[in-house]
Amino acid sequence: xxxxxxxxxxxxxxxxxxxxxxxxxxxxxxxxxxxxxxxxxxxxxxxxxxxxxxxxxxxxxxxxxxxxxxxxxxxxxxxxxxxxxxxxxxxxxxxxxxxxxxxxxxxxxxxxxxxxx
Length: 117
Fold this sequence. Notes:
The protein is mainly alpha-helical. The chain is built from 6 helices and 2 strands. The protein has a two-stranded antiparallel ribbon with strand order 1-2. It starts with a helix and ends with a helix.
């Protein structure tokens, strides 16, 4: 890949399926790539243990790899921001999600807005 093309990839906003580039060595991005290493470790842990960052008793991988614990999704709407330095965050696109929640669910649930809280 040309350096220009690699730089253009880095500036793009990720979309559904972009992680496959790192999983299947598309465009020559291999395991030497930090993002590939992080994604493969979380996915392998999830496949093996049912949790992307299992407890130390199940696997020592998260401690050895210095990967942050991937907390379960909950009413706090936690999510893992996957970058070369992954971090847990809350309320992804809060305003956008609130719009769609109201658009599709408030009128469809008995009690409307009050039933959602």
